[in-house]
Design brief:
The protein has about 375 residues and is of the alpha/beta class. The protein is built from 13 helices and 17 strands. The protein has 2 domains: about 120 residues, Enolase-like, domain 1; about 230 residues, Enolase-like C-terminal domain (TIM Barrel, Alpha-Beta Barrel). Helix 2 runs antiparallel to helix 3.
Length: about 375
Amino acid sequence: MKITEIRIGRISVPLRVPFKTALRSVDSVEDVVFEFHTDTGAVGYGEAPPTGVITGDTTGSIIGAMQDHIRKVLIGREVDAFENCTRALNGCIVKNTSAKAAADMALWDLYGQLHKIPVYKLLGSARKSIVTDITISVNDPEEMARDAIDAVKRGYDCLKVKVGSNPALDVARLAAIRAAVPKDICVRIDANQAWKPKEAVRILNEMQEKGLDIEFVEQPVIAHDFEGLKYVTERSYVPVLADESVFSPEDALKIMQMGAADLVNIKLMKCGGITNALKIASAAEVYGVECMIGCMLEAKISVTAAVHLACAKQIITKIDLDGPVLCREDHILGGALFNEKEISLTNAPGLGIEGVMAGKIRYID
């Protein structure tokens, strides 16, 4: 199976409600899709969201990385020489992790199709289904409480609550949510780098002292401040998950060696795809650090790739793959099955993606 052509397209999927964090507010998923065509007729799919405020990758940079660099090293390669393909991909351009992630998952998709096996079975096959949390966007306390009630009515038993846009309100937001939902509902929070280390410790400890029962906090301080992250981890009553701090296996390893976080978040768009995510998972297994797998605001192709990884590895114990259920529509045929909090995989080879609905993709070239 040889890669003969790589097509680039764009999809736009409206959200049920606006997605708001301490860093941004958006109304729709706007992703770039890669199609890897082969001489056997098989097509591998990849997808990347432009998340410039987090990854630095824009729509233009994702497209440019493919047109100017990735295509040149992958077209003409045999998929069965898989490590040669992934090494060529990772070596053809620095950074640009979202474009690399989309290309990497397309390669895994083709490799699974070549050998007639789902990707999660190639990687370890720990399970066939997972349960995700759902994100509650940052708003005033009353609106967040209403959103939390709606999520619980839909069957979710774990809420990831966005905080950080106004520290003075964060305790009130969590208190409103806790008062609105049953006590057994899991609540985890995501500050998206919003706090200073000492401020984070004060806020988090106040939350716990008020009985808000936070499972963990995601990225309380700025991404590059590993020492600040360690400061919070050592002093906070709330366990700490490193997210934006982890852009590579090397970042994850350093955080584990420093004891800078209690848990590590794996996101394909930050680390460059499944290939590098496996290295993070392996390091976590060595250090005994549990992982969460998360996503940006992404549609179903790329989240399906993350589901395959999550179903393959037992070290991934926390799931934050709600991108597709936040969307009002699903433009992707095949892939993982999203039934609110329940996500499952089929035995279709590769990623199981069958394509994009007619008229829902705009090809660039």
